[in-house]
């Protein structure tokens, strides 16, 4: 029996809202404490459990639905946790750090893979820096995460110069959005030390057509344990943008290949003109 653990109420994503921000945020979801997380079903394959972390003003389904379904088809144990993605990023990191500890505890010390999209990709890397040996994470796969901070939020509108000095501007009235800006106090502190944990593998995925986590190199991190992948390398016909990456076949295949290259050796290259 495939295992899936959902926490909370899904955030609605209004038409035209982006994974980075929304014009008007819905109420935060109700989140259960990590102590309520249960062990993987005994019928799962025994492979490393996977924790999925969605983007801002989204849900696991909106951000990582095809990835989740493919992992479940593989018999993997998947934890899909909803969270208040408008709260300070540090609070979300604390939440998912506790979730990792709980997943490891209930599954008797197993390693864990983490897949994050957008803000979730930043959170995934930040969570990996919260642990030392023995490290509970095996692999972090980060899709278009603002690892170095975002300068453009919506369709080329540069709000970085406004910074947190303009709290009346709706986009910047959200703690998580302010935390993801280039040069924010949160990112400055997070990136002041090592960008990765030495015993964890990282796969960082980005698209040159991303208009939200832009410019796309902000999603990449340098390190001997890091593989940076541009979707268009070897597949220029895939023009998937930030939102479209969630269902883009090549992006999904890249995630699955990173987690289990033997089971998913093929990464498709299909035309995709959805630059949202």
From TrEMBL:
This is Uncharacterized protein. The lineage of its organism: Bacteria, Bacillati, Actinomycetota, Actinomycetes, Mycobacteriales. Keywords: Signal. Residues 1-19 form the signal peptide. It comes from the Bacteria. It holds the Pfam family Palm_thioest. InterPro entries: AB_hydrolase_fold. It comes from Nocardia uniformis.
């Amino acid at each position: 029996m495939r295992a899936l653990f959902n926490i909370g109420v899904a955030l609605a994503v209004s038409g035209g809202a982006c994974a980075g921000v929304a014009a008007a945020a819905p109420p935060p979801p109700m989140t259960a404490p990590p102590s309520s997380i249960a062990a993987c079903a005994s019928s799962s394959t025994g492979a490393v459990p996977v924790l999925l972390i969605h983007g801002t003003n989204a849900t696991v389904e909106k951000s990582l639905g095809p990835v989740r379904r493919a992992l479940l088809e593989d018999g993997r144990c998947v934890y899909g946790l909803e969270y208040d993605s408008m709260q300070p990023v540090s609070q979300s990191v604390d939440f998912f750090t506790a979730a990792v500890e709980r997943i490891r505890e209930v599954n008797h010390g197993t390693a864990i893979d983490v897949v994050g999209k957008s803000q979730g990709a930043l959170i995934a890397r930040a969570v990996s820096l919260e642990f030392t040996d023995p490290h509970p994470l095996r692999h972090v796969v980060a899709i278009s995460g603002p690892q170095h901070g975002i300068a453009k939020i919506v369709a080329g509108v540069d709000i970085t110069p406004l910074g947190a000095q303009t709290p009346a501007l709706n986009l910047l009235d959200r703690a998580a959005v302010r935390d993801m800006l280039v040069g924010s106090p949160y990112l400055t502190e997070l990136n002041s030390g090592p960008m990765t944990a030495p015993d964890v593998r990282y796969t960082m995925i980005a698209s040159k057509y991303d208009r939200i986590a832009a410019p796309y190199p902000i999603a990449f991190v340098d390190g001997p344990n890091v593989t940076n992948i541009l979707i268009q390398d070897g597949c220029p016909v895939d023009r998937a943008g930030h939102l479209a990456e969630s269902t883009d076949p090549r992006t999904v295949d890249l995630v699955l290949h990173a987690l289990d290259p033997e089971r998913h050796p093929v990464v498709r290259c299909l035309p995709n003109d959805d630059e949202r």
